[in-house]
Amino acid sequence: MELLLIRHGRPVRIENADGPADPELDDEGREQARRLAGWLRHEQIDAVYTSPLRRARETAAPLAAVTGHEVVVDDELAEFDRDAHFYIHYEELKAAKDERWQQMLTGDWAEVDPATFQRVVVGAIERIVDAHPGQRVAVVCHGGVVNAYAAHLLKLDYPLFFEPAYTSISRVQAARTGERSILSLNETGHLVGTRDAA
Q: What is the DSSP letter of 25?
C-alpha cells in the first residue's frame, strides 16, 4: 500500500491561550488545503485519516470532498504540542532563536517524551497500514508526526530531522511482508507560485 503523510496547512498564530491552543487555518492555509486537494484529485485515494487537531481536520476536509471519503479521526496522530497554550510557526521560532525552538532541537519537549511520542505515532500509522492492504491512504497530520515516522523508518536517533512544508506530502510504500520504503519527503508541487513553494 502507499501512504501519503501530509502536514496540515498554515494555521493562525496563537499565543497565551486560556487552554490548549488549537488554531484554525489562516487564509494562506485554506488556499494550501484547496491546492492539495486539487493536486491529489486524480490519484486513487482509498481513505483519508486526520489528527483530531483543528488545523489538520480543516486541511483534510477539501481532500475528503474531492475523494468522496469521510475523514477518519485518529487521536494518536496528534502533534506532540497538542496541549501547548501557544501555536507559533516554526519559522518564527527558528528566526527569533526562541528557546522553544531550541527545546525542540534538543528533544526537550516539556511534558512529552520524544521516544514515547514516536512509539505512539508509529503504532497509529502501522494500524492504518494494516487496515488498508493494497490501497493508497492519505494521513493529514503534523510536522512532528511526519518526522517521527520517517525517522523510525530511517533508523535515526532523533525524531525531528527535517522541516516539512505546510501541506507537503511524504510518501511511504508499505509491503504486506513488512518492508517500508520512503518514496519521497516534502513534496510541494501543488504550492508552485505561492510563498511557501520549496
A: B
Phi–psi pair at 49, nearest 5 degrees? -115, 155
Q: Is 179 a catalytic residue?
A: no
Verdict on whether the full-model pTM lies above 0.90 = yes
Taking the C-alpha atoms of residue 2 and residue 184, their distance in angstroms, rounded to an integer, is: 11
* Half-sphere exposure at residue 55, Cβ-oriented, CA atoms within 13 angstroms: 31
CATH H-level, domain 2-191: superfamily: Phosphoglycerate mutase-like (3.40.50.1240)
Taking residues 80-85, report their average pLDDT: 89
Active site residue 79: yes
Residue 50 near residue 142 (C-beta atoms within 8 A): no
Catalytic residue among 79, 142, 187, 190: 79
| CB-based contact 42:106 (threshold 8 Å) | no
Q: CA-CA distance, 152 to 148, in Å (whole number)?
A: 6
Q: Is the dihedral angle over the CA atoms 184, 189, 190, 192 positive or is it negative?
A: positive
